[in-house]
Amino acid sequence: xxxxxxxxxxxxxxxxxxxxxxxxxxxxxxxxxxxxxxxxxxxxxxxxxxxxxxxxxxxxxxxxxxxxxxxxxxxxxxxxxxxxxxxxxxxxxxxxxxxxxxxxxxxxxxxxxxxxxxxxxxxxxxxxxxxxxxxxxxxxxxxxxxxxxxxxxxxxxxxxxxxxxxxxxxxxxxxxxxxxxxxxxxxxxxxxxxxxxxxxxxxxxxxxxxxxxxxxxxxxxxxxxxxxxxxxxxxxxxxxxxxxxxxxxxxxxxxxxxxxxxxxxxxxxxxxxxxxxxxxxxxxxxxxxxxxxxxxxxxxxxxxxxxxxxxxxxxxxxxxxxxxxxxxxxxxxxxxxxxxxxxxxxxxxxxxxxxxxxxxxxxxxxxxxxxxxxxxxxxxxxxxxxxxxxxxxxxxxxxxxxxxxxxxxxxxxxxxxxxxxxxxxxxxxxxxxxxxxxxxxxxxxxxxxxxxxxxxxxxxxxxxxxxxxxxxxxxxxxxxxxxxxxxxxxxxxxxxxxxxxxxxxxxxxxxxxxxxxxxxxxxxxxxxxxxxxxxxxxxxxxxxxxxxxx
Length: 550
Hints:
The protein is α+β, with helices and mostly antiparallel strands. It has helices at about 10-40, 45-60, 60-85, 90-95, 105-125, 125-140, 155-165, 170-205, 235-240, 260-265, 270-275, 280-300, 305-310, 315-325, 335-350, 355-375, 380-405, 405-420, 445-450, 455-465, 510-520, 530-550, and strands spanning about 100-105, 475-480, 480-490, 495-500, 505-510, 525. Helix 3 (about 60-85) runs antiparallel to helix 7, helix 5 crosses helix 7 (about 155-165) and helix 12 runs antiparallel to helix 14. The relative contact order is 0.11.
């Protein structure tokens, strides 16, 4: 069966956009040439020479630049279409390098400009992008817009522009300057291009997905907007606001199974009234109802992958029984049950591909643990402390296995790290790292843009780097996209740091100075475990307030 993403109508949309790409880039080059030429009057010395070289190269290499742009754009789109046509294919695994890649300051300078270009496009064409996304979602039949199916995203165009910049037969400094000059006109022209694409789809009779209504069993849409506030309600106070099972005029309240859970194939193991029937204390029944609602909110949370939600649902009944005996369950940030769930969701999210072997191994371990918990007739906090410790032990062993598999890479980096103290880093095959002694050749706008970090920013970046521990997860911008990577090794002299991809066996060795530069531009940050129960508590509190208002 042909995947909907490769339907004839979608393929026609892709072909139309690729056909218009050369004209789009020609207009970008015209804008860059005019803008750069106008800047000549205010320049002198090395800056004037740099810009003059750039102008001459643009004129001489115009056709070559356009070819590189279109070729990169086509390759990226076709790669995405191939992944869509292969069930179970991992996008991250296909697009990321398999071998050890060394990231230095030179590459980071390019990544900074690439990130600026992406943000410029997003800011300029925010409305047009959203509109186009609804039309493309309608073509592929995704009425709830669960995924952005538009292959012509800002990052795709920005990477194509960078591919063209690298076609210039000049130094990396010139190429980065050219990329910076391209960002503004590219963003402005793409705003018009996205709007024109929407108009063409509308003329073809495509009805945008958000203009349709899909009624589901619960009367609400899947993946509704979750609460975004950082406020985390107190579970003990929330319990007092809960209606208690068996408190109706007929002496019993039989709640229905969560409709969202049934849609996902999750069968609740126990109803709230079954657990609370033997309790004479209203506070206990309120606690049971609160825990039941918390689990419904967690397993329908858009941030919780469905395969993980299926596992978490198995703890719903045991947790409600635990609520009758352990008041500490309402300590949402401390109780091992919530810590177990939070950690499981977090680690599973670091390996987003469903077919990833490490993910399957993680879920098998979690399933066995949850089945053991559910089989216990008496639910106690110590059981969940054991579950938490078992999960932590599994993650530690998994990290040990990965480090053992990377022993040769780490040994190579250890030698490079030792050399970094005795001499300067080896020169790049391009134009060399961006060091202080080279600043006389850096255009003034590069320094004005903040590419060269200030001392305060460097100190803050170093403090952040010092705070990292082995096994910490980091969000890192490389190769024009955001990656979720784990810290696998850091040299004693911190000359090099090794990260491993969360969804594949790819690794990146990053020079310390390059990592500090990334941090200074907000292109790297530590990932923390989210409180899934805290988010669920916000939703439950909202629902209860709505019920009382009605």
